């Protein structure tokens, strides 16, 4: 696959699916179970990752960073209360938006000027920011792994190397 942004985002989709599939194997209450960690529950982690991914998608499609941050704040409680299957469906729908954008070379390299609400701006592109989106998800999948271990459950592998091996590349 020659489009690295799309390939790397496909890894993100695969890794999220690994987590969703593992969570569906566990008792239903694990998803919202309170735990002493960086986040109060796995549902809080998933809501945070979803809202961050949604915010970046909004920016990639021309909305302001201020809009993305306000949207995340507006939807936070609602997202945290979603059940696992609802959240999974929302991730799938959002990933379709990303794949649509990332499949169009002219859009992924189009210059973006991102205004930081705290001041300053950054000139970049969706192609340059996809690794940030994916790395952010990877970091928080690690949080989920630690939280599951704390609750007495094993997680699942979401390593990029395993993804490449399974894809045969």
Automatic annotation (TrEMBL):
SUPFAM superfamilies per UniProt: DinB/YfiT-like putative metalloenzymes (SSF109854)
Coiled-coil residues: 65-104
Pfam families for this protein: DinB
UniProt key word Lipoprotein: no
InterPro entries given in the database record: DinB, DinB/YfiT-like
Entry keyword Metal-binding: yes
One annotated GO molecular function: metal ion binding
Keyword terms of this UniProt record: Coiled coil, Metal-binding
Binding site for a divalent metal cation: 48, 136, 140
Domain of life from the UniProt record: Bacteria
UniProt similarity note: Belongs to the DinB family.
The protein's name in its UniProt record: Nuclease inhibitor
Species annotation: Peribacillus simplex
């Amino acid at each position: 696959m020659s489009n690295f942004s799309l390939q790397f985002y496909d890894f993100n989709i695969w890794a999220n699916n690994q987590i969703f599939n593992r969570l569906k194997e566990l008792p239903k209450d694990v998803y919202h179970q309170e735990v002493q960690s960086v986040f109060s529950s796995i549902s809080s982690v998933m809501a945070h990752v979803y809202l961050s991914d949604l915010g970046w998608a909004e920016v990639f499609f021309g909305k302001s960073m201020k809009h993305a941050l306000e949207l995340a704040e507006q939807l936070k409680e609602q997202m945290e209360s979603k059940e696992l299957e609802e959240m999974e469906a929302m991730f799938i729908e959002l990933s379709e938006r990303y794949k649509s954008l990332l499949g169009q070379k002219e859009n992924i390299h189009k210059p973006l000027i991102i205004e930081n609400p705290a001041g300053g701006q950054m000139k970049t592109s969706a192609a340059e920011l996809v690794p940030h989106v994916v790395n952010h998800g990877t970091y928080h999948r690690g949080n989920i792994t630690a939280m599951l271990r704390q609750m007495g459950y094993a997680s699942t592998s979401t390593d990029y190397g395993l993804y490449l091996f399974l894809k045969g590349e």
